[in-house]
Amino acid sequence: MRPSAVEELVAVSPFRNPQESLGVLDAETAALLLEGTADIAIVIDDQGVVSDIAFGSDDLSSEFGDDWIGQPWLATVLPESRANLEALLQEARDTTRPEPLMRWRQVAHPTERGTEIPIQYRAMRHGREGALIALGRNLQGMAALQQQLVDAQQALERDYWRFRQVETRYRLLFRMVSEAILIIDASTQRVVEANPAAGQVLGAAPTRIIGRPFPEGFDADGTQAINGLLAGVRAAGRADDVRARLHDSFQEFLVSASLLRQESLSFLLVRLSPLPTDATAAALPETKTRYLRALEKAPDCVVITDAEGRILSANGTFLNLAEIATEQQARGESLDRWLGRPGVDLNVLMANLRQHDTVRLFATTLRGEYGSITDVEISASAVHNGERPYFGFFIRDIGRRLGAEQPTSPEQPRWLDQLTERVGRVPLKELVRESTDTIERLCIEAALKLTSDNRASAAELLGLSRQSLYVKIDRYGLADQTHESDAAADKK
After folding, report:
1. Are the folds of 5-138 and 177-280 the same?
2. Phi/psi at 169 (nearest 5 deg)?
3. Complete DSSP assignment for 115-166
4. CB 3.0 to 4.6 Å from 194: which of 12, 198, 238, 286, for a disulfide?
5. For 246-290, what is each residue's pLDDT tens digit?
6. How far is CA 135 from CA 11, 119, 123, 369, in A?
7. In this structure, is the dihedral angle defined by the CA atoms of residues 146, 148, 149 and 155, taken in order, positive or negative?
């Protein structure tokens, strides 16, 4: 253990003329001086055996007693401290080393009660040859302070982890609650935090709501009522609940708010509670209500997404094919998560919907959460609702129909027969090149047909760049076929 700066200064700054200032001290005076300046003073003979000992306090004397006299000094310390004590004895007996530069070393002594006491020693050579005097400082007070510091640090760690657990429970509850909850900055009236239910109500992911002004998305009367509610809560701490309706929905909400204070900041906790379903049903015509119930019970999957492809609602048939338990698990997720070709199918569908508003019989697969794969056909339509359009997807399971139609027409593999007839007359490399060209052309034709001759979507579906696809279309003469089909359609 390295001595402190004060200890080093004392060690290297001895008396300038001790013989004149102190004179010759007798044994009793020297003993009293050692007892008064050290917590423990030990005299060790040239064999390393304790020949005499003095304690500066009765408490320390009661801990050790007089059992040390006649014992090797190394036997009085714990095993892990013997190396330090041996180094101390070796330095003290080194006659080439000046005594003012002797280091302080810390050891630990066992007590009669089974505890241990840390002592810091410095040894000096005695008048007799080989004899040493060791002066010790009791470090129990420092050890107690260190233990208190460790205990305080552990208490802080426990409080920190307890706080983290509480915060985790709060986050989990905040996400799982079915009602829409938002935390609003009282000064700027912008959203600071929102749970997933609030994202579903406001038609956006919770992360996209954060930072936006509130209220937003409500009709004029609802916006005015919510602003009055928030102003009343800021002024008086509470206000009566108000009703508000989204401008593009028949759903009406009961809006309540309360004031939260955190240090010098103020926040508003806003809750949007949907009114009972019978009120919503009364607001809709009976024909519309029957229509919605029929879609919910339809044997085909019905999925409604926002403009980015995130699911807003889905019927029970889609939940069964996707192998998820509740609609809550699907809301806010991208439909691309369950389609067969991630990053491709949904992009093609969305591109066609933005261009043509409808897509019919788009063939792909639907993957369940537990690994099941179902062949499906997707038809979709776009609904333009101001600045917030949404898309409806109708997904049909065609697995059984594909199985029934497994036998194909004999005309389809005719090109294979033509290739095999040329075996032996044409080199293999040429046959392979011709078959590759044929397969490539068939794939491009299928992609163009699947995307309604949308070349950009077809290139994305095939994993090609647009320029590469245009080159291949010109190479196989497919551009002329596309123009002919468009002309025939125009004549009709």
Report:
1. yes
2. -60, -40
3. -EEEEEEEEEE-SSTT-EEEEEEE-HHHHHHHHHHHHHHHHHHHHHHHHHHH
4. 198
5. 776 667 788 888 888 877 788 888 888 877 655 444 555 666 667
6. 13, 10, 6, 75
7. positive
pLDDT > 50? residue 354: yes
Q: What are the boundaries of each domain within the chain?
A: 5-138, 177-280, 288-404, 414-491
Among 435, 457, 273, 439, which residue's Cα sits nearest to residue 355? 457
Main-chain dihedrals φ then ψ at residue 368, nearest 5 degrees = -80, 165
Q: What is the pLDDT of residues 285-317, one digit of tens each?
A: 666 667 777 888 888 999 998 888 888 888 888
288-404 folds as Beta-Lactamase (3.30.450)
Q: Which of 190, 187, 213 is nearest to 266 (CA)?
A: 187
Tell me the sheet residues that pair with 368: none
Residue listed under structure tokens 């510091």: 149
Distance CA 436, CA 401 (A): 30
Give φ, ψ of 147 to 5 degrees.
Answer: -65, -40
pTM > 0.90: yes or no: no
| Percent share of the chain, pLDDT over 70 | 77
Q: Which tokens go with 381?
A: 């339509």
For 374-437, give the DSSP string. EEEEEEEEEE--TT--EEEEEEEE-HHHHHHT-SPPTTTTHHHHHHHHTBTTB-HHHHHHHHHH
Segment 97-148, tens digit of pLDDT: 665 556 788 888 888 777 888 888 888 877 666 688 888 888 887 877 888 8
Closest CA to 226 of 236, 214, 238, 211: 214
Here the tokens at position 373 are 């794969």
What is the phi/psi pair of residue 380, to 5°?
Answer: -150, 160
Query: What is the C-alpha separation between 304 and 1, in angstroms, rounded?
Result: 72
CATH, domain range 414-491? 1.10.10
Please name the residue that has the structure tokens 């491709």.
344
